[in-house]
Design the sequence.
């Protein structure tokens, strides 16, 4: 993980209207993982769910996260869409090229009005 420290100076008003300078410190981090890493697979699955929804309903609202542990894949979140699709098929289409065959898919997606 790469960390970069950044300093900003910002002017804040006193309650009486006078200004003073405050030094702000932020730490910015980034992460890089290789192909086949569970984080990347999860992102690909979530992106595939969003894509299938938008292909059928351009007004879809999709907020899903994917978790993987061994051969168990959980897709959770909520969506508002008129799209119809089989979640297990979408997940299998993503993971099959990666050699994952015997998977268990749990759907924890809620739908909003």
Sequence:
């Amino acid at each position: 993980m790469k960390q970069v420290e950044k300093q900003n100076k910002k002017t804040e008003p006193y309650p009486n209207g006078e200004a003073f300078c405050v030094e702000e410190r932020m730490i910015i981090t980034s992460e890089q993982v290789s192909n086949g890493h569970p984080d990347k697979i999860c992102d690909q699955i979530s992106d595939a769910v969003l894509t299938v929804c938008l292909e059928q309903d351009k007004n879809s609202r999709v907020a899903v996260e994917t978790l993987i542990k061994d051969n168990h894949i959980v897709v959770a979140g909520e969506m508002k869409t008129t799209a119809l699709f089989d979640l297990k098929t979408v997940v299998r289409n993503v993971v099959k090229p990666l050699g994952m065959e015997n998977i268990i898919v749990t759907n924890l997606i809620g739908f909003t009005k």
